């Protein structure tokens, strides 16, 4: 067995609420890896509606790795949401024209946090909100309705508003080993063969078995 076909938008027969995002995203500034899915009973193919204030002229990217699980209602706020902060007022007068466009800010005057990057094997829970420029490490978990305003280290569980670390899933040494193993980059046949170890908690057993996958 080689696992589900990553080219099939809906890999679960009879469950259109689960959609592999890579097959349906249209924006060139949204980059998604294989097997990453969005779970939503209301139009799961329209994942892009959850990527807000993502204007092409700004150029920021949303990058999501492989094997990520994204729950219903997760939102990504991009850099286009930002207003100029250095003036007395933050109101965007310029967007209404009729003479107000004369105060159009220069791009350098607007806050810019860079690309939003989600690693591999990340689980983002229901209604979580990811702010601009955040980087979430491999194997991290974001609890439901969290507001993520800062970077999340690999294999860390975060939650709350603002999201803060709740627990570390593995020791620092085990995290380093898992980062090196990078099972998500293995050929799908090897992933299939090693599934019992990938879903278990024995990092050393996975490391010992991973030599054949390089």
UniProtKB/TrEMBL annotation:
Cross-referenced InterPro entries: Hexapep (IPR001451), Trans_hexapeptide_repeat (IPR050179), Trimer_LpxA-like_sf (IPR011004)
Matching CDD domains: LbH_XAT
The family this protein is said to belong to: Belongs to the transferase hexapeptide repeat family.
Protein name: Vat family streptogramin A O-acetyltransferase
């Amino acid at each position: 067995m080689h696992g589900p076909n990553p080219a099939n938008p809906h890999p679960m027969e009879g469950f259109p609420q689960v959609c592999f995002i890579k097959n349906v995203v249209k924006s060139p500034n949204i980059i998604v890896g294989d097997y990453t899915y969005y779970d939503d009973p209301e139009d799961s193919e329209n994942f892009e509606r959850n990527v807000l204030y993502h204007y092409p002229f700004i150029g920021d990217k949303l990058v999501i790795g492989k094997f990520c699980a994204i729950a219903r209602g997760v939102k990504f706020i991009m850099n286009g949401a930002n207003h100029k902060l250095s003036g007395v007022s933050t109101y965007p007068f310029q967007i209404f024209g009729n003479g107000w466009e004369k105060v159009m800010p220069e791009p350098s005057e607007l806050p810019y946090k860079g690309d939003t990057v989600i690693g591999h094997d990340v689980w983002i829970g229901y209604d979580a909100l990811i702010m601009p420029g955040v980087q979430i490490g491999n194997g991290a978990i974001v609890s439901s309705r969290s507001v993520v305003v800062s970077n999340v280290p690999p294999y860390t569980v975060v939650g709350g508003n603002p999201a803060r670390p709740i627990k570390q899933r593995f020791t620092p040494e085990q995290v380093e080993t898992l980062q090196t193993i990078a099972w998500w980059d293995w050929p799908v046949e090897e992933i299939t063969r090693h599934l019992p170890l990938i879903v278990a908690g024995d990092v050393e057993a996975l490391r010992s078995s991973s030599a054949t996958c390089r």
